[in-house]
Amino acid sequence: MVIFIFTDEEELTESVIEAKRLEIEAVKKAEAGNVDEAIQILNQSIQMAPRRPAGYNNRAQAYRLKGNISAAIEDLNNTINLSGGKGRSACLAFCQRALIYRIQNKQQEAVADFEKAAALGSAFARSQLVLMNPYAALCNQMLRKVISQYR
User: Fold this and answer.
1) What b-and-e string marks burial along 67-80, b requiring 16 or more CB atoms within 10 Å of the CB?
2) By the 8 A CB rule, do 53 and 90 touch?
3) What is the pLDDT along the chain (151 residues), one digit of tens a residue?
4) pTM of the complete model
5) Please, which contacts does 41-49 make with residues 24 or more away whose CB atoms are closer than 8 Å?
6) In this structure, how many other beta carbons lie within 10 angstroms of the beta carbon of residue 85?
């Protein structure tokens, strides 16, 4: 399942409405396995509303699916910059970028991005921070052992 985003507080101009319509079309293409076509449609969406962070975030997801990590990171950075690091687009961009950093074994960068996403309300980011904390992992392991002994 491919997950893209569409909502941020923004002025609903004709170009923004058309950009959102194109994003919906792109999501359908990506979900059908046509990620290259989805990227082309997202390019059009971004051209229609270049100051809209969600378009870059969605294209980053498509790039990531294609394995183009450098393009994904660039779009995630654009999302964060355009959103001012606030709102749903930024939250999701921080999570996406943190996941990429984890895969790249850049743990400090991943933690920093998960912390920013958690501060924006992401329960997923909070759970990832717990998993990445060696002390929390040790406590969880000890707690599971104690619970299993009492059963």
Assistant:
1) ebeebbbebbebbb
2) yes
3) 444 444 444 567 888 899 999 999 999 999 999 999 999 999 999 999 999 999 999 999 999 999 999 999 999 999 999 999 999 999 999 999 999 999 999 999 999 999 999 999 999 999 999 888 877 656 666 667 777 777 6
4) 0.80
5) 45/18, 45/19, 45/20, 46/19, 48/15, 48/16, 48/18, 48/19, 48/22, 49/13, 49/15, 49/16, 49/18, 49/19
6) 16
Q: Are 131 and 137 in contact (CB under 8 A)?
A: yes
Q: Looking at this protein, which amino acid is placed at residue 42?
A: L
Q: Are 114 and 125 in contact (CB under 8 A)?
A: yes
